[in-house]
Amino acid sequence: MYHSIGIVGGGIVGLAIAYKLQKQYPNSKVTLFEKEPQLGKHQSGRNSGVLHCGLYYEPGSLKAKLAVSGIKQMTAFCRDHEIPHEICGKVVVASDAREEGFLNNLYARGKANGLSELKYLTKEELAIREPFVKAHKALLVPEEGIVDYKAVMQQLSSLILESNGSIFLNTEIRKVEERNDGIVVKSKNGETWQFDLLVNCAGLYSDKVFSTFTGEKRPLRIIPFRGEYMMLKPEAEKLVNHLIYPVPDPEYPFLGIHFTRMMDGRKEVGPNAVFAFKREGYTNRDFSLNETLDAITYKGFGNFIFKNFSFSMGELNSSLFVKAFLKKARKLVPDISENDFEKGSAGVRAQAMDAKGKLIMDFNVVRKGKQVHVLNAPSPGATASLAIADYIIEEYIK
């Protein structure tokens, strides 16, 4: 086993890998670097806090395997460390006969992935669970839940430090040099460290970090999509009890606008999926010329827009106009009105894309010399983070 391992990126996947390494190999020294003044500031700290159990993912895919294992590990971790979480279940709604076919396919996929107790709800059962939902057909997924991922990351960081690991905040790694006796890394501030192995968990910048560290061309491109949320005002929270999702349309990427109850009791609506003009751009005013050009000049991005033009315009419309956002939400809960909304949070999804414009939906990890690069860890990356860590250690580090 390696005596010293460096990890670049203090989101939940980087923390999970550091935690698992220190736990399995207590004689090894693990050092984690985060460029921000706090851990999990971006994707990991801006998601909706849902525990995904493996309903959507292609049977046999890495996502499917790690989601099923991951939710079990995550809920056990939360129980052991008294982290707020709840297995409340969710309802997936088909709004018409066409979507009923998609819902039946989801049911079969969930069964293939090992989910238990999936159940189609009668109108009476749905009315008891979610009285304001309108559905042609509804599927209950009882194994899904909610969690406070910020509390998870705080606990992981505490356990890393207690196990002789180190965490450096405000430390951006800029240069890497591989030598026969190890790998030397240098921070933006000029500090240097030497390790036996380096792991890239840089999330939104994973592709750029890969190129910087290896000197090689990026095997994929991260395209940033901003997801914007609305919050239900307190007087409208009665419209939603737990988790309510639409059936995803296989012709378009992303899940669509849904309703989420959060651990603090607030109810969230969203997200849409809008191209972000900056990788860490959380409003439509955030802009980076270099990062915008990096995306729009990529052949794959042009192919994606060509194939998904109507979808892309619809998502942009829902970002610019509340009425368009409301229309998507009303598909599930018809009684909701514009007055029930107030501005919520936003996150940016690091969506990997190939040159043909195809979204890379499965997890993607590569090893180059003394470096391991986690190039793609989209949803359910947070839920499955502990299982992802096991997989990476077993297949790429051990």
Can you walk me through this structure?
Keywords: FAD, Flavoprotein, Oxidoreductase. This is L-2-hydroxyglutarate oxidase. Residues 5-394 form the FAD dependent oxidoreductase domain. It comes from Taibaiella lutea. Belongs to the L2HGDH family. With 398 residues, the chain is an alpha+beta fold. The chain has 3 domains: 4-45 and 150-220 and 361-397, FAD/NAD(P)-binding domain (3-Layer(bba) Sandwich), CATH 3.50.50.60; 90-142, no CATH class; 223-242 and 251-359, 2-Layer Sandwich (D-Amino Acid Oxidase, Chain A, domain 2). It is 32% helix and 26% strand. It is built from 11 helices and 21 strands. The protein has helices at 12-24, 62-80, 97-112, 123-129, 149-162, 206-214, 289-296, 299-307, 309-320, 322-330, 385-397, and strands spanning 4-8, 29-33, 50-51, 85-86, 90-94, 119-121, 137-141, 145-147, 166-168, 173-179, 182-187, 192-195, 197-200, 221-232, 243-246, 258-261, 267-270, 274-275, 341-353, 364-368, 371-376. The strands form 4 sheets. Strands 5, 6, 7, 14, 15, 16, 17, 18 and 19 form a 9-stranded mixed beta sheet that branches. The chain has a 6-stranded mixed beta sheet with strand order 9-2-1-13-21-20, with helices on both faces. It has a 3-stranded antiparallel beta sheet with strand order 3-8-4, with helices on one face. It is globular, with a radius of gyration of 21 Å. 47% of the residues are buried.
